[in-house]
Amino acid sequence: MAKQSRRVFFGLGVMLMAAFVLGGCGQKEAVNAAPKITITKAWMRIPPGGRDISAAYLVITNEGGADTLLSVSSPLADDVQMHISKREDGMMSMEHEETVPIAAHAKTIYAPGGRHLMVFGVDAGLKAGDMVPFTLTFARAGKITTQALATNTPPQS
């Protein structure tokens, strides 16, 4: 009976070790997998009269491996910067982000009060309903272009 118990414990030990090793391999593969990025819910505020600065918002969904957002541009603006708003000691502050990590199998949300795109030198002719092209450049996925709806009300969906 003692020999049989040792065999069972040995077998369980081998199975646990195999599960641990194989589980680790799956995590490494997820990190090394190619990113699979889609951009949705893109919209941009219409600058108030006479101003040429705005903010844009969107959702980055990554169903693949990790990536990094390096930059954003638009032919209808002089410059687009990635920013994040934070509350510290009861005060809101805004910081420029040089790059943004895009986690594997996750969403990165650009929304009012959080991450957002600051859009400088917006084309003066922009009006409600126009579509604004943005090109996002990722370290691994490369360039992905999306269209943002020009509006002062976040689109529903």
Report on this structure:
This protein has about 160 residues and is an alpha+beta fold. The chain folds into 2 domains: about 1-30; about 35-150, Immunoglobulin-like, CATH 2.60.40.1890. The protein is about 20% helix and about 45% strand. The chain contains 1 helix and 10 strands. It has one helix spanning about 1-30, and strands spanning about 35-45, 55-60, 65-75, 80-90, 90-95, 100, 105-110, 115-120, 130-140, 140-150. Strands 1, 2, 3, 4, 5, 6, 7, 8, 9 and 10 form a 10-stranded mixed β-sheet that branches. The longest helix has about 30 residues, at about 1-30. The radius of gyration is 23 Å and the shape is globular. The model is unreliable at about 10-25 (pLDDT under 50).
Quick summary:
This protein has one helix spanning 2-32; strands at residues 37-44, 53-62, 67-73, 79-88, 91-97, 100-102, 106-110, 115-120, 131-138, 142-150.
